[in-house]
Structures are given as C-alpha cells and as structure tokens.
Amino acid sequence: MSRTPIRPRTLAKALAATAATGALLVSLSACGKADMTKQASPFAAAKGSKSVTLSVQTWVGAQANVAVAKYLLEHELGYHVDTVQVDEIPAWDALSQGRVDAILEDWGHPDQEKRYVQDKKTITAGGGNGVTGHIGWWVPKYWADAHPDVLNWKNLNKYADQLRTSESGDKGQLMDGSPSYVTNDKALVKNLGLNYQVVFAGSEAAQITQIQQFAKQKKPFLTYWYEPQWLFNQVPMVEVKLPAYTDACAAKGAKDPASVDCAYPTTPLQKYFNTDFAESGSSAARFLKNFRWDKKDQNEVSEMIASNGLPADEAAKKWVDEHPDVWKSWLPNAPKK
Amino acid sequence: MSTAAPPTTPGALGAGRLSPIQGLLRRRGLAKLLLLAVAAAVLVPLVRSAWPGASWPGALTVDVSGPLDHASNWIIDNRDSHWLFVYVLGHLSNAVVLSVRGVYLLLLALGWTGVTAGVTLLAWRVAGLRIAAIALVSFLVSGALGMWVPTMQTLALMIVAVLASVVVGALLGLAAGLSPRLFKILRPVLDTMQVLPAFAYLLPVVMIFGIGVPAALLATVIYAAPPMARLTALGLRGADAGVLEAVSSLGATGRQRLLTARLPLARKELLLGVNQTIMMALSMAVIASMIGAAGLGDRVYQALASVDVGAALAAAVPIVLLAIVMDRTTAAAGEKLGATPAAAGPRLLRGWPAWAGIAVITAVAALAGRLAGGAIWPAGATLAIARPVNEAKEWMVNHLYSGVPVVGGTADWAAHFTNWVLNPLRDGLTALPWYGVLLIVAALAWLIGTWRTALTAVLAMAAIGVLGVWKPSMDTLSQVLAALALTLVVGLGVGILAAGSKRFEAVLRPVLDVMQTMPQFVYLIPVVALFAVGRAPAAAAAVVYALPAVIRITTQGLRQVDPGAMESARSLGATRWQTLLQVQLPLARPALLLAVNQGVVLVLAVVIIGGLVGGGALGYDVVTGLATGNLAIGLVAGVAIVCLGLMLDRVTQPTERRTTGKGA
What we know:
The structure holds two protein chains of two kinds. Chain A is an alpha/beta fold. Chain A has 14 helices and nine strands. In chain A, helix 2 links the parallel strand 1 and strand 2. The longest helix of chain A is centred in the first third of the chain and has 23 residues. Chain A starts with 5 loop residues before the first helix and ends in a 10-residue tail after the last helix. In chain A, 45% of the residues are buried. Chain B is mainly alpha-helical. The radius of gyration of chain B is 27 Å and the shape is globular. Chain B starts with 8 loop residues before the first helix and ends with a helix. Classes of the chains: A alpha/beta, B mainly alpha. Chains A and B meet through helix 1, helix 3 and helix 7 of A and helix 3, helix 5, helix 10, helix 12 and helix 15 of B.
C-alpha cells in the first residue's frame, strides 16, 4: 500500500503536465491572432528556409509533373520540396490557404476559379503546362478491330449485351472512375438513350486494375478515360465518337448538368499558384511559371513510374538527364539566392 | 443421429435451468410481437393511403443541402477573418504543428541509431527482453525498407495524437467516473463515437482546418479518445467500495481519495485504455493520409495511385510493426503492474537509474550514429521489395482470376456472389416498403432489447429516410448484411477450430495480428484484381477486416466455457460434435453475440473502402463528398452510415440491464 500510490500520482502529474504543455504551446504560438492561412506542414524543410510545397493529384500524369519539377527544384535551384497528395477540390482549398504553393495540372474547375482567382484573389493563374487533356469513352483496340462500328455512339446499344457484368444487371457496363473526376456520363447515357449502366469503380486505382484485368483476358469493355495517360501504352484503346462538343451544349450543361448530350471538351491543362508565392518573385516561383512540356514528355515519365515501377525521383532524373534541351529554358535566367 | 443423443445429466440440468427463462422469453417476445402487429395493423393502412410506394416518401424528407452548402461557404469566406478561427482554432492548429514538429525534429536529431536504441531500451524496461527484441527488429526493418523518414513522421504524429487522446479521454473518463450524472450523459455520446466511421468526420474537420497535419491529428483524437474515456470511467466506477470506505474513514479528502485509492485501483483499466487508444490512433494513420497527414499512410496512398501494391506494402509493413511493438509493450506493461518487484526484472532495470541509463545510452547511440555516417538511414542499405511483391501479386491474380479447374476462379465467385446474394438482397430490401423495414427493425430490436433500444433503432432508420438517402442506404445495408453473414460463417468456423487446437491458434495469431493492423488501402488493389470492380471486392475487403476480431472473440468465448461441464458431457459419451453443439456453443452465447456485434461495427467501418472499389451507395457518396469538398453529399451519407451503425448495433446487442435484472 505504501508503494502503489506513487505511480498513479505520477500518472496524474504526467497528465497535468501534458495538459499544461498543451496550453503553453497554444499561448506560445503567439498571443493574439493566429493566421490559419499561414501554416506550413510540420515536416516541411527541416533545415534552411528555401522550401516549396507541391500538391500531387492521384493520377500519374500529375505525379510526373511534380516529380520532374521537384527534381529540378532540388538539384538545380537548391530547394527543399514537399509533396502532399490531395484530391482536386481540396487541393484548391489548400492552395488558397497556403498549405501548398502550386498545382501543376488542373483540369478545369470553374466554380473554384471564380471563388479563389477572381473573387478572393488568393490564387493566381499560372498559365498552361503545355499538355492538352481530353476525356472520353474508350474501348480496347483488340475489340474495336473486330467490331469497327462500335466506335460510334449510335451503335453502342447493339453491343450492350457483350458488356454486361454482374454489377450492371441487364444493361451494358460503362465504367467510370474516381468520384473527383469531372463526369457527365449519367446524363449522357440518359440523354442519348443508351442501354447502359454507369458503374463507378470509385478510384482510379480500381479502374486501372479492372482495365488491366479485362485486357489480360481480351474481354470487351467500355470505359470513361482520359489522355494523356500511360495506360494507353499498355492497353491500347480507341475512342468512341460521341455527339460533337459545342459551346451551346456546354452552356446548357453549365446551367443544368443533367442536360448534357455532347462529348467532353478538350482542355489545355493549367497551373495555379498561391498568390503570395507567385508574387514572391522567388526563383522557385519563376521556375514553376516557366514549367511547360508536352504530352510525349509527360507520358515518358508517367510510364517509367507507373508501368516500369521506377520511383518517381529516379524516373524524373532519367528524363532530366535525357532532355536538357526542354528544361534548361525553364530555369530563371539569373537565379538569385 | 439425433435420437442417439442420450438424456445426459448436464443436458437435462441445462435444460431444466434454461427452460423457464426461455419460456418466459418466448412468451414475452410473443407479447411484444403481438403488440407490434396490432400497431402495424392500425398504422400501415393509414400510412399507405397517405404515401403509396415502397421508397421513403418524398414529403417526409428534409433537404439539408442548402444549409450545408451555406455553412461550408461561410467557413471558407470567414476562415481568415472570423474570431473563432483567428483566435481559437488558429492557435489550436498552430499548437499541433509546433508540437508535432518538435517531436519530429527530436526524432530526426536522435538519428536512426538513437531512436532504435531508445525504443529498444524502453521496451526492455517496461516490457521485457522478448519485446525489446521485437522492437529492435521492427525499427531495423522499417529502415531497411527505405521508410525511415516517413516512419519518423508517423511516429511523431502518433506520439502527439496519443498523448492528446489520452489526456482528453482521461479527463472525460474522470468526469464520467466521478459523477453519475455526467456518466449518463456521456455514455450515449461514447457509444455513438464508437460506431461512427472515421471517414464521416474527416470532411467537416478538413473544412475547418484545411488539409494537413492539424486536421489529421484532430480526426485521430476524435477517433482514439473514446476507448480511453470509457475505460477510465469503468475503472473508477468499478473501484472496490470497501477500500474506498476504509480510505474515507481515515479522513482522506476527496482529492486524496482519488489519487491514493481510486486511480491506483483503476490502473489496469487505465493502461488498457492507453493500449486501445494507441491501436485506434495507428489505424487512423492511413485514413488520415487522405487529408494530407504525410508519413507512412501517405506513402501507402500515393503508391495506390500508381497501382503499385509492392510499394504500398513497403510502407504498410512499418505501420504493422509499429502497431505490434506499441501493442505488445503497453500490454506487457499492463500485465506487469500487478507483479511483485522481483518479477519486474533485475535491480538495475528499476527506478530512476534505469531511466537515466536509457537516456544516456540513447544519447551515446545517437552520437555514435552521427559520427559513423549521419542521422538518416543509409541510402544504400535498403531492400527493394516492391518488385518481387508485385510479381507475386501478378502470379496470384493470373492463376486465380478465372478458369481454375473445378472450383472456378475468383472472378466467377465474385460474379456468383453478386448475382445470387447481393442482387437479390438489395432488390429485396429496396422493394420492401419503408414502413415494413421499420417494423422489422422494431421487432428485432425489441425482441433482443428493451422498448428503448427498439425506439433508438427505429428512429435511426427514420432519420435515414428523412435525410433522403433511403435507397442508397438499403443498398449499403444489403452489402453489410451479406459481408456480415460471410464473416460470421468463416469467423465462427475458424474460431471453433482455434478453440479446439492450441497449435492452430498459435499459428493463427500472427496472421490475425497482420490482418488487423494492415492498412485497408493495401488490399484495395488485390481485391479488385481478384474480384473485379463492384460490390463483391467491397464485401471481400470487409470480411478480411472484420474476421480477426470475430475469430478472436469466438475462440476466447469457447475457451472460457467451464471445462467441468464439457468434461462431464464427454464422460457421458457425448461425441465432440455433441459437446460442441449442446454444451460449448450454448454456454458461450454471450461471447458469440459480442462477436456478432463487433462484426457489425467492423464491417460497417469498411463500407467507405468499398466505395473506393466500386461498392457504390453510401460509401461512394462519402468518398465523393471528401473528393469534391461537398458537405451536402458527404456529410449526409456519413450520417446515414452512422444511423445504420446505430440501428445494427441495437439490433445485435442484447442490453445488459435486462439480463442482469432477471438474474440469468
């Protein structure tokens, strides 16, 4: 009885001490205002102050951009680079708050652009990254070769039977991917009178795995997909023609998304920067503004990462070693310390 | 064979003991059902004339998307100006960043030599040599996998999160343990927090704190504090009244009584609480990576984006190892508490010299590491496991996916499971009129519990309807039920086998450990590769996740059955099957019910992972909400999942009050 009370008392003391430390930290973090918009990651740049945080989206093209930018920032400009993986819209939010400094590949988010770039001015447009993106419906080449008329949406109903799965019931399966991607597929299926069921794979990883699986068995499939994408090199796919994209159709769709009845637009992919970062004039900001390559370059890096299993850093190094002509022009002319 | 069963004494005894209660139960149950039937006969025609159709009537729904959109816009517009953010939440967020950074920098400064030495010695001091060896190997493996820095990031986050959870939980538990009134208020809150899937509150937390470490830490604390609070309250309330009486008769004040008697008596529960909190916090490490927590979870998540199971596994292994080290250390510390000093190890390892020794050796190791090469794990000394793992996965998928002779491939199973189990179940539940569902829920909950449990369950279901997500919820419910049935069949089977054979249990234990701590994201790709996109891989993921707990509880329950009863059954010539079915299983009924209940909670926790592999329904909505920052979709679906959880919990959890009240 004489010895036992000590431990709980130390426990109670430890609890009190921790609570006190917490309180102290809260007050230490500055008396008065605490700007939530100016907080870096606790893991950012352990030493030195030259640090950039880039957001990485879940698709590999975005990883390729970031890998190359990161490699050059670290090796040519002496920065420490942190990457954060976030979905597209939360990434905009993080950009406006300064949690990340740059998004290197945006597929068009008009609502966010209006809120942050035009109204709040916390985000600055950074120009195109040189790659043009395109969303569409695709079928595997081995199947399209045997049935060339599947490449027109008007004939899709003829093939619904072949595309049935246990998830799509008695309709054909049109596979969609991650919920964060821009899609009108439900509206398209309805408005074009197609006998199809949109089945959401739920994530790009699941969608790619399923496509690879189908391809291995040479099974037919119809999927929402986009280019540039490394998977095309592994599983050749051909696009199905949808009713042509028009501005009128886009305007109609902007008002009521359920009314869309035409193909997806072709989007020049954009870069966006946190305004403070863009206006800082740092060499990193100037470098990222200059960053601009094309689909071929991006796919080269993407494929090394996703298909050959190279770590992103190594893939970037390999590309950088082979293409000095492309990236030399991105470097700020007179790098300042 | 059934006639061959002799009227054995224990059997007759058991029957004699049970039959009046069972009779009463049956009669009571009948009365309840009759009452419900009368209510239904009156209400259903009324309801049907007012709202025809099977689905929840549109007139009874409330559209909350307007207010929720408004709320999220308000947060975004005021985040950098309103006092609530600037003076309160901003400081909280800063404090989190500062403390995590502090711990992280300390860990980095110690270097891999210092950290490994420190952790090993610490494990030795509190838990013994065997666990120290496990800790040593674990940290070396994490380094060898090339995961040293992410492991330190996760460790830093975990240390701060666990400390915060323990403090918050202990304070709540203290309040609940000392005041019966607070206990009454807190209990349902803690109950709800336990069935709440973590994803449901990721979104609101992100809205307020933005992505990053503060949000991740907060979400972790919400998830991990309840077990601490619950166990603290339990320990304080369970203190021996006689001891307390003795202490107060000695004239101790309330505070003295708490510090010298109640807390010491509760220390086993307190340590168990810490242990549980650590495990919960670690299981959150990966989920929190979806909102930018960095560390190992982020590596797993990023590897998934490039469909690289090998790389995901390389980051997941250190998570599993961290969990095992922390679990074993705290568990051993708990067991040692009651032991005599002699059993606590050699003299050198006790008291302050031991702590000082640990500090000195750690510092020396850190310094030596610095001098020898550097604080970061040497880059050359890493094992690349990604490629072989991926090759193994490819091989497995290629050989199991389809066309396996006789049994068929996994894809065929998945298709059959979807067509023959999931589809009929979903169609049945969706076709069932909503008042029918409410009646069934009421009947089940009332039969197993009190009218209060029934009311909670029915209200939870009604809330789902009111929120306007009836149909997806029925879809999710069908998936949960199917996965649960599968989990129980497999889990009870394996549990019975493990209870019968010590050797089998010993082999099974590490497998279960890994299944339980392996981040769910890691098996996302394999399940899709094996079972094709859809609800079948979602069910498979749920089964894998929920199985360990069900197996463990079953095994333990069966083991604890009075050996005397089984022995006498055997001596009377009962076969193994007869003993199992007629003595062991009935006697282990409470444990089996607990297994069912835990199965429900765990299966439900994976619904959202299901959303990532094509499970659709509520899980997909939550993921959508998180990915698009849409509170209206994500939060409503999250609340619906919570409601489903509450309902299922009530339907599968017999109330203790009732059974103890009858003295059964």
